[in-house]
Specification:
Layout (H helix, E strand, L loop, with lengths): L1 H9 L3 H14 L6 H13 L5 H13 L4 H4 L1 E2 L6 E2 L4 H11 L3 E5 L6 E6 L25 E3 L4 H11 L3 E5 L5 E6 H9 L14 E3 L4 E5 L4 H8 L11 H9 L8 E4 L2 E8 L4 E7 L12
Parallel strand pairs: 2-3, 5-6
Antiparallel strand pairs: 1-7, 3-4, 6-7, 8-9, 9-12, 10-11, 11-12
Helix pairs in contact: 3-4, 4-8
């Protein structure tokens, strides 16, 4: 019994040894720099103290301290906006098409932000006995932040002041874009899906006889098989990559390009990637066979 007990003490488990390492780091030799801290986190994963998702989140928290709002904002060219003089029906059309919940309201152009509209504020005006609609009745003050603001401070401000969207301006006071709390949280936890993302599990869906919606991550090989096309996948693998290659830049929502007779319109995009496109096929094309 005593021999077994002695052997157990002489052969500590790797996890126990690593806990000792953590205690030593915390109380006798704290990480000297970011690299040391990253190494400690990755060692924790390798020793099964944390899982890969937790490691990604911890590294994401550290990353936001080094990024500026300009690095994650939605550029002004891709902002979905409402105009101050739009009717209720016109506002609803934009809201339904975009599936967003908050919108900058502009007057003359995107440099003139009058405020923020929340989609839920339109609900009372949809009753038959409601008062006449005017955007001014539901307009909320727009929060304005500089491009250079640190992302971690932006997140703290979002949480403390309880708002979810801010307008980003450059050093000359012009509107550069907008940033939302979701943009920041996705840096930490990865892409956040909502009820509108369920439909995107299907790569290709038919909208009408000649119109289809296609996920940008759809493999070119799968697209070719469905539509009988012959797009090359030697340089890029996905439809989104093919479209970006054809444009020569990251296109904004609404931009359209024709490739070998097929018209591609960017339906959804953010500041980093194309998300979804609408594809209009030639009139004489055979009917694609979609999987159920």
């Amino acid at each position: 019994m005593s021999d077994d007990h002695s052997q157990s003490n002489d052969s500590p488990s790797p996890k126990k040894g690593f806990f000792t390492l953590i205690l030593n780091q915390l109380f006798h030799g704290e990480p000297k720099n970011r690299g040391d801290l990253v190494e400690l986190i990755r060692d924790s994963e390798q020793n099964d103290l944390i899982d890969p998702d937790t490691r990604d989140m911890l590294e994401g928290v550290m990353d936001i301290a080094e990024q500026r709002v300009r690095d994650i904002m939605i550029p002004r060219s891709q902002m979905v906006t409402l105009k101050r003089n739009q009717t209720l029906e016109e506002c609803l059309d934009v809201i339904i098409e975009s599936a967003h919940s908050r919108f900058p309201v502009i007057s003359e152009d995107r440099d003139h932000i009058e405020g923020i509209l929340m989609a839920k504020d339109l609900l009372p005006f949809m009753r038959t006995d409601s008062e006449p609609f005017s955007i001014d009745k539901v307009l909320r003050t727009a929060v304005v932040v500089p491009e250079s603001k640190r992302v971690d401070r932006m997140l703290k401000e979002f949480r403390s002041q309880r708002y979810h969207m801010a307008i980003v301006i450059d050093e000359f006071g012009g509107v550069s874009g907008l940033v939302t709390i979701e943009d920041i949280l996705e840096l930490i936890v990865g892409e956040i899906e909502d009820e509108y993302d369920d439909e995107e599990d299907v790569d290709i869906r038919q909208l009408s006889r000649h119109m289809y919606t296609v996920r940008a991550l759809t493999d070119i090989e799968d697209f070719n098989e469905t539509f009988g096309t012959h797009f090359s996948d030697e340089e890029v693998d996905t439809i989104g990559g093919l479209i970006m290659q054809a444009f020569g830049h990251l296109p904004a929502r609404g931009e359209t390009i024709e490739i070998e007779g097929y018209q591609f319109k960017v339906a959804m995009a953010d500041s980093r990637r194309i998300i979804q496109v609408h594809v209009k096929i030639p009139d004489d094309s055979p009917q694609p066979q979609l999987e159920d």
